[in-house]
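Quarterly update from the structural biology core.
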Amino acid sequence: MSSLKCTIPGLSLKVFGRAILSLSKIGDELYFEPLEDGLFLRSVNSSRSAYGSFQFSPSFFSNYVIGVTDKDGHSEDDDDDVLRCKLGMKSIMAVFKSLPTIDKMVEKCRVSLDVAEARLIFQMYCRHGIIKTHKLAFIECETLQAVFSKDMCPNKLTAVAKLLCDAVLNFQNNQEEITLIIRPNYVALKNYVDDEPDPHKVVHTELTLSPEEFEQYQAGVDADITFCLKELRVSDKWIL
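Predicted structure, tokenized:
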């Protein structure tokens, strides 16, 4: 079973907390998976229509030690023995409740897994020698991974983050869903209106973007995709 001991510098703690905050807008559970190539934080919404994942490479931490051992303490390399766990989002959000000022209050944070007690431990080393310890209960689970192949997609759009952020700002805050329309010579975003008896009572918003505004524009097939705007706004807040 895997064990983890890592240290997050105080200056990097806000970035780590912002990732958890973003995932909390998607799902009620945080999937925690320490691997050799980094620590993965993931979440999915209840309908499994939105998924978020952050990978923190070992270089993000001031030290990152992961070991996989059997019950006798011998090293193992089997990925099936890596501990994959999940915990309630509310419990871990309590650790980062002072996110705006956390980098000024905390000098470093040590994270470890207590497999025997089924606890994920955060130790905040604050100023004046104060240490705050949070022991969060977790349960083991299967890995959470969105299964798809980008190479098989006929449509591929790549743009700078600001283009998407500015486009989303055109929609009302209470807008729940939008439709993405892809054509060979343009992309459009418009608000989705479902079964409105009087269309004149609804504000209609539509934004059109030309292929020249994208770094990569590949429109292999015409597509109209309607999706929830809430999770897209979560991504916008992270990249801004």
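DSSP finds five helices and 16 strands in the chain.
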